[in-house]
Every structure is written in C-alpha cells, then in structure tokens.
C-alpha cells in the first residue's frame, strides 16, 4: 500500500496543482466576462461576451479530459456531435443546444468557484504544512541570527533546536499520515470530473445511433456505386467491345490473305477481353441478383463454382444491401473452397425464420481455415456487422468447414 501511495503521489500532486493553475485564471475570466456581459447586455454588446462565457466550458472540458490522464483515470470520449453544416453559426447553434455544453459549463463554474480553492487547501494541509515542519531546523538556523526564534507557517514559535527536531519528527509523521488521503482525494476529484464531463447515457445512445445510421448509409452508397460502375461498364465498354469484335469479324471476310491471320488473332483477343469484362461485371454486381433475388443468384454462383455444389435455398426477397452482403459472403466462401480446401463437394443452405436470414456453406475438405489469415472473410464480416449481422467459420483440422452467416432483416 505504501509503495502504491508513493508511486501515485507525484501524479496526484501534479493533477491538483494543475487544477489550481487552471482554476484561478478561469475564475478571473468568468468574473470579467460575466460582469461586463451583464453590464453591457442592454446595448447588446454584452451578448457576445455572455455567449463566450457559456461556451468557455467546451475548451475547459477538453482540457480537463486530458488532465485526467495524470491520475491514470481513463479519459471519457468527446461528447460533442459534429455539425452537419460548415460554418461558425452552425457550430454555435449545435453547441448551444447540446446537453454536454451545459454540463461542461456547470463543471467550469464548479472548478472556478469551488474545486480549485479546495485543491489549494488540500495541498497546503497535506504537503506545505508537513514540509514546513520538516524544514524547521533549517528555518531556525536561517532566522536565529536575527531574532533567535522561528515561526513555523505563522503558527508555532520555535526558539531551540530541540523543539525544531521534534517539529521535524512531527512533520514526517504528519506527511506520512496525509499522503494516502491526498491520493484518495485526487482520485475522487478525477472521478467527479469524469462523471460531469463524460457523455450521458442518452447522448451515448444518440451517438451510437448516428454511427449505426452512418454505417448503413455508407453501405447503401457503396452498393449504389457498385451498380453505377456495373452499369457504366455494361452500357459503355462492353458495347464498344462487342462492336469492335463484330467489326473485326466482318473485316476478316474481305481481308487479303496476308492480313487474315492478324485480323483473326485480333478478333480472338477482342472476344477474350469481352469475356473477361463480362466476368468482371458479373463480379461487381450480378444482374441476376438485382432481377431475381438471392436464391437465383446463389444458384448462379453454385453453377460457376469449380467444386460441385448442392443447393437447398428457400428465401424471399430482401433489401438490396442484405442480398448483396449474403451473396458476396457465399461467393467468397465458394472461392476459398475451390482454392484451399481440397473439397470434392459443397453444400449451400438458406432459410428465413424468425425475422433472420440464415445461410450456411459447408464442404468436405481438409479444414483448418482461419479467417484471420487474409481469406477475405474478415472484410465480409465487417460488412455484415453494419447490418447487425454475424459471420462465423468453424473449420477444425481434417474438416468439415462450415461458414454460417445470419442477418436480422425484414423480407421485401
């Protein structure tokens, strides 16, 4: 216990002393802003000063959250939301309507008028008084030539070295007795600051809701961008390649013999590029998923798999983001089966029960799959998490490997 107190004492003393250095100027600033603001309010000049006084809690709160690190207290997150619009007016309007701003103002007033004077008293009693008592022989030696006695912290008169040594012993005992209360007070002081400056439960829930909605908007924007790219490639580059292939085919019919072979090679190359582009378009966002839904899209993925796949899927239509997340998770699982598992067969099962989409991909391979080794499933798990979904992989050595995904969603 003594070792813990000695280790935490410098941090506790630094926290309280820095509180004094913040609180004393803050008291002066608040008094000046308040008095001038109220005095000049009738002519409207004081209103900006009062607004500055109200908003002064924001930088003070940010500083106080940083100071909590001195006591090893985990600093709370910034409780303020980001303005939806740029500009000082939007920022001020948002800050003046937030509960966090008024909580920080309350803490600022408490710090300026009550907490830092209390910090001064605690530091004086716990460190200054015992320190002055310990230094009594030194003080007596420096003052004896003048008056022959010394007054310790203006309270006790000492005129002999015997009294000074007794005072030193009492100072050491008092210091040791007050170290633990000093550290405890600093802890309680930090906890109070954290309680007042941390976001409340309602604000935390609101911020969590904002994060959830923003993640959902990002997924929707990502899907819209995928569809735009797919549409541009389908209607632009693919059509031009088709036209080029047809032109080369027609040119071969009338070409002289010495150009026929080159045109044939160019025709084959154009057809190959066209096939690769079609595969790329299908991988970006398959049209069958948009037109017919997840069951037909999974059937198409099973047909394209290098490993034979048995399909058992009975699913309705869902939101586009849900169908896309499930489809690409199954696609990635089938790709991993073909590349790494050594499986001879795979199975896909999908059901919708209790408001939850459940899809399972299983194979008879060697197992040992680890999503953390860069199989691509980690990114898909993050994508499912945006939809409150989960992705799990069970793959013991020797197999079988089972990938399961579950997404809570309404049917469309």
UniProtKB/TrEMBL annotation:
Keywords noted in UniProt: ATP-binding, Kinase, Membrane, Nucleotide-binding, Phosphoprotein, Transferase, Transmembrane, Transmembrane helix, Two-component regulatory system
Which residues span the membrane? 12-37, 43-63, 105-129, 161-183
UniProt cross-references to Gene3D superfamilies, sorted A to Z: 1.20.5.1930, Histidine kinase-like ATPase, C-terminal domain (3.30.565.10)
* EC assignment: 2.7.13.3
Q: Which Pfam families match?
A: HisKA_3, Sensor
Q: Where, if anywhere, are coiled coils annotated?
A: none
Question: Catalytic activity, per the record?
Answer: ATP + protein L-histidine = ADP + protein N-phospho-L-histidine
Q: Which domain of life is it from?
A: Bacteria
Q: Per the database record, which ranges form the Putative sensor domain?
A: 15-197
Which SUPFAM superfamilies does this UniProt record tie to the protein? ATPase domain of HSP90 chaperone/DNA topoisomerase II/histidine kinase
Enumerate the spans annotated as Signal transduction histidine kinase subgroup 3 dimerisation and phosphoacceptor domain. 225-289
Protein known as = histidine kinase
């Amino acid at each position: 216990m003594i070792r813990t107190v000695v280790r935490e004492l410098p941090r506790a003393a630094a926290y309280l002393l820095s509180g004094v250095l913040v609180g004393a100027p803050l008291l002066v600033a608040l008094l000046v802003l308040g008095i001038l603001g109220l005095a000049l309010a009738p002519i409207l000049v004081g209103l900006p000063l009062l607004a500055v006084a109200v908003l002064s809690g924001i930088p003070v709160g940010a500083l106080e959250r940083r100071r909590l690190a001195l006591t090893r207290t985990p600093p709370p997150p910034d409780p303020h939301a980001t303005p939806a619009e740029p500009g000082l007016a939007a920022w001020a309007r948002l800050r003046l309507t937030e509960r966090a701003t008024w909580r920080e103002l309350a803490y600022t007033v408490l710090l300026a008028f009550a907490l830092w004077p209390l910090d001064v008293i605690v530091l004086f009693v716990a460190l200054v008084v015992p320190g002055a008592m310990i230094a009594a022989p030194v003080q007596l030696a420096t003052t004896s030539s003048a008056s022959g006695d010394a007054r310790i912290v203006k309270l006790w008169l000492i005129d002999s070295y015997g009294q000074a040594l007794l005072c030193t012993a009492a100072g050491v005992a008092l210091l040791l007795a007050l170290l633990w209360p000093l550290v405890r007070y600093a802890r309680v002081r930090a906890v109070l600051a954290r309680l007042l400056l941390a976001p409340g439960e309602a604000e935390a829930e609101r911020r969590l809701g904002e994060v959830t909605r923003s993640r959902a908007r990002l997924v929707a924007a990502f899907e819209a961008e995928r569809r735009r790219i797919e549409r541009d490639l389908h209607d632009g580059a693919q059509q031009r390649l088709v036209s080029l292939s047809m032109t080369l085919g027609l040119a071969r019919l009338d070409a002289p013999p010495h150009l026929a072979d080159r045109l044939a090679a160019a025709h084959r190359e154009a057809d190959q590029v066209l096939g690769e582009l079609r595969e790329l378009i299908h991988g970006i966002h398959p049209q069958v998923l948009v037109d017919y839904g997840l069951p037909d899209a999974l059937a198409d993925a099973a047909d394209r798999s290098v490993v034979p796949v048995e399909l058992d899927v009975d699913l309705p239509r869902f939101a586009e983001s849900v169908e896309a997340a499930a489809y690409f998770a199954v696609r990635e699982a089938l790709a991993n089966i073909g590349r790494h598992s050594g499986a001879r067969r795979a199975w896909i099962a999908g059901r919708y029960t209790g408001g939850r989409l459940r899809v399972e991909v299983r194979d008879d391979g060697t197992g040992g799959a680890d999503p953390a080794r860069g199989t691509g499933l980690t990114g898909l798990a993050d994508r499912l998490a945006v939809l409150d979904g989960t992705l799990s992989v069970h793959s013991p050595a020797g197999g079988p490997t089972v990938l399961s995904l579950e997404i809570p969603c309404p049917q469309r």
